[in-house]
Inverse folding.
């Protein structure tokens, strides 16, 4: 069950998005070469990726059923079966995520926000109630949330992650630019904007140097 | 110059953050094994990564100069030499990024926002003026911005990316869950929350299955 690489897992939502667009355009069948050309992957990669999550092998000349692929991908990604999360740190970035309508389509239900700022506690952000961070140990088990989304400042992240794990979180979606240390069996997935920006800047500088600028 | 993988580039801001913490703690020297243990990389990887961007090889028993490493990393990452960007799509996520104080430390200066929503045009968000998207072709060259940050809805992303490139953008930092098609020589770096969430959910399900839940 653990045979998927992060890169491969990360491609499935991109396939799904494309297949849904095809459905919306009334397109019923799609071939691996067409998928490969559209998404910029190799044909072999497309075949391997889809084979791993769908029995829909397609018919010669016709291609695979788009509807079946959408169903299989949504099922694989757990989009039918929402995971529950809380969000800790309801500042600018946290507030943006609380207001993000697409998460529920992706099978993520954010049930509540937590913050240390008295100005935010008791208010709603994106329709979610914001509670004091001190109530996390009491409320996380009640909410039965497995996932803690961390959008706190870097210098608070480790401490808050520990509190979330002690309160029962099984997975941390970490937006703070910090390498968290957690015990074995706790899943940490990082969204590191600094790392992404480093990749962008370096590749931009390579291109600018090519252009003689 | 193009010999860095994205994974490797993405690690440099994480090294830098750690070295700055060490400096703040008054720690002058650090060894590769210590770095490796702290960040969860192999010692060999740490040595290769740092060798590629810094001549600071360190002294036996003492380790590398933290101050020198910070300088070399900041220089490599271009943090002393800010890149200029505009942000297109000043909704929740875009607004959060405009309010993000850490970007200027990372060498990214967001000069202005653009949006199609008349309620936002002419206002400031995070201290940045929001202009009509129609003025992008006129203003992007005036601002001399190489980078367009895309935080527009998925169904607008391709069209807006094309407009940004036509207006002179050399790189696109894309937060929309879409594979953009751009001409050769234009850098695209994606921050795909759906992909990150897919990785998290899958690994969480693997862990929950192990626990017999």
């Amino acid at each position: 069950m653990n045979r998927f690489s992060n890169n491969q897992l990360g491609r499935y939502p991109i396939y799904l998005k494309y297949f849904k667009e095809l459905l919306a355009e009334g397109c019923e069948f799609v071939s691996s070469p067409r998928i490969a050309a559209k998404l910029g992957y190799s044909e072999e990669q497309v075949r391997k990726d889809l084979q791993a999550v769908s029995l829909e092998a397609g018919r010669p000349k016709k291609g695979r059923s788009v509807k079946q692929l959408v169903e299989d991908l949504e099922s694989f990604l757990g989009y039918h079966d929402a995971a529950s999360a809380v969000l800790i740190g309801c500042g600018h970035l946290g507030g943006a995520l609380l207001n993000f309508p697409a998460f529920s389509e992706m099978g993520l239900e954010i049930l509540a926000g937590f913050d240390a700022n008295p100005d935010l506690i008791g208010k709603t952000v994106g329709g979610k109630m914001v509670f004091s961070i001190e109530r996390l140990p009491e409320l996380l088990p009640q909410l039965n949330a497995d996932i803690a989304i961390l959008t706190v400042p870097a210098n608070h992240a480790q401490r808050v992650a520990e509190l979330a794990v002690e309160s029962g979180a099984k997975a941390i979606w970490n937006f703070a630019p910090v390498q968290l240390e957690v015990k074995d069996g706790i899943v940490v997935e990082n969204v590191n904007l600094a790392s992404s920006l480093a990749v962008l800047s370096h590749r931009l500088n390579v291109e600018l140097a090519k252009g003689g600028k």
